[in-house]
Amino acid sequence: MIDNSLLISKGYFPRELPPLFTTDKLGSLFSAKRLSLEQFPKRFSKCITHNIPKRRQFSRSLSIPNPLHQMRLVDGLSRNWQEIQDFFSESGLSLSIPVQDDSGERAVTNEYTRDEMTREKVLRSYSAKYIVYADISRFYGTIYTHSIPWALHGKRTSKSNRSSRLLGNQLDFDTRNTQDQQTLGIPIGPDTSRIVSELIAVAIDCKLQGRFSDLNGIRYIDDFFFFVNQRSEAEKILDGLNKILKEFELEVNELKTDIQKLPQPSEPLWLQELKSFRIRAKPEAQATDLLHLFSRAFVYYEDYTRDNVLFHAISCLVPIKIYKKNWSLFESLILQSLMAEPKLFPIVARLFVSYKSYDYPLSNERIKETLLSIINYHLDCGHDSVLCWASWLLREMEIIVDISEDRLSSVNDPFAVLSLLYLRENGFLAGKIPKTKWQSYMKTDELYSDHWLLSFEALERKWLKNRAGTDYIARDDFFFFLRENDISFLDMKYRTNPIKENKLSYVQDPDKSIDLFSLLYG
User: Fold this and answer.
1) Which of 74, 245, 254, 344 is deepest in the core (most CB within 10 A)?
2) What is the spatial distance between Cα 456 and Cα 447, in angstroms, rounded to a whole number?
3) DSSP assignment, residue 497?
């Protein structure tokens, strides 16, 4: 059985949030007590929508369910885990079966890593002349929740038996209740959606296997790869996949669907070059090589707009110790990269905190100027995630900023508002804040709306008040239960741990693999 407490403590909030936000206490409570969630009468609630930058001016919306209904969904999945595993085992295509993540990063991970999936593509395609690429269009966002029972039990059985005794019906019901009973889409962010989406994907695999008895291919989440010897075979498979997807009210992403001749490179040229780039050990040579590496990375960043070029480039540099005399150059290159790609915030925060602890000459003025520029740009774009991470880095670097009340009045995202209130509580946000606007969320109804987190945490910490002065949390059974058990979704004491200086080296070891998760979070 999967550990249901892990699905809450590590698999509930999206990985894209800064470490200020936590569900560890809730996970421990879920593990320690046998909760009867049915004692809390609220039937459904709304998700928080949290926007993160995807690439360039585009954004991606994450959904964070209310804890009550997320716990109900987790409970249903964990109690029926054996049946779910048995169903997963029917796929001969999937390399992305969710398994418990023992690394401590998330609750579940894919059975195969992406690198292992890439190697498997090579191993399975050795005798093929063509490779077929196919992708499910907007997979999470277009899943019809009623198709969950279709996947597990078939359409005929599901439509004739609507009872909760069918696992698919129960998962459909619990999923809908996390998102205001909507049937279109499932929340992007929680690990539970990785499990639910795989149920549907495995059902698609099984139908493909039934239609094409000698099918040679793999699937990784929503990406399909098939290996054939005739182009006509490839076209038949694509036609069959299209028809099967329509049975589940899904569609192929035409932009990512293609038939190409083999052999094909297993990874893009830009990634090969960045992986093989070497930083020399002498101070002057290190400075030259840093300029060359970032120059190549910036070119590739412009050419490969869908790929995480800058993240890969900087990841290669994490184990390398930068000479103190090269710090200003390195800092400037990092800040330029962060301006272009806010996804770098987690790795930049760890680097800056680490080198600050080594007594390096970090420029708070340059960091402050860059972060304010990033904040102002992304406020206009509605990228709430960037404001959260910028606030986190300002707190970690102990930099005081003053952002006008007028600029902050556009901020509605609960995570962003709490990040700003946290920054102000610690004395690093000067000036006025739009309290009057934010206090409009301090009322009973908001505990189950898309502002549930702000409504709960801001009142608990006395950062914002109910306009009538009432303690509405005491009137709600579930959130009062959280209060009584000392549950908070903020870790006020967390600080970014510096990378141990003795783990870094001026000499780059080409044979040593990078455990990036350990370096960044260990």
Assistant:
1) 74
2) 7
3) P
